[in-house]
Amino acid sequence: MFARTNRLTLRRFTPADAEQFAAYRSDQQVAHFQSWEPPLPLTEAQQTVERFAQGDPEAPGWFQYAVDLDGVLIGDLGLNLSQNLMQADLGFTLAAEYQGHGYASEAVRGLLQHLFVDRELHRVSAECDARNTASARLLERVGFTREGERPANSWFKGEWTDDLLYGLLRDTYLSRQPPTPAPSD
């Protein structure tokens, strides 16, 4: 386990996650603003989950965190750790039936707490398709600052799309956290 929130656990993927992973990654609504095309066959999901399970969250490159609600995989958070081990890019995916209940925000907040407090990263960045207003609102809700827009920057699923750029610095994140209560005697 990497992080625990009120309702969720951020953990490593296991082989038992493959079926649920294939289900939500096969959903056209979930895949709309993502880099993959649905459906995701179960055999491919099994291979992907196995690869995720072998990943090293401390090494540069992508690592996928499983988002678990009471033992059920409901989504994943991707983190692309830079070579300097102090910066990362964030992505998130949540099964459609769990969207709109605050789970994605809670999962991202839990990961940010882990990254900025436990691992002391300097910066976390994210970008999203400008049409993906739900993701943009989520990023702003959890404390990211919109740092820019790149018009017609990405050739995505057959069309040029605008990219919104977001960032959050460790110092900013820590300054917004409530003070830790002093221990009582």
TrEMBL record:
N-acetyltransferase domain ranges (all copies): 8-171
Keywords associated with the record: Transferase
Transferase listed as a keyword: yes
MF (Gene Ontology): acyltransferase activity, transferring groups other than amino-acyl groups
Organism from which the protein derives: Kribbella sindirgiensis
Superkingdom as given in the UniProt entry: Bacteria
PROSITE patterns for the chain: GNAT
Name the record gives this protein: N-acetyltransferase
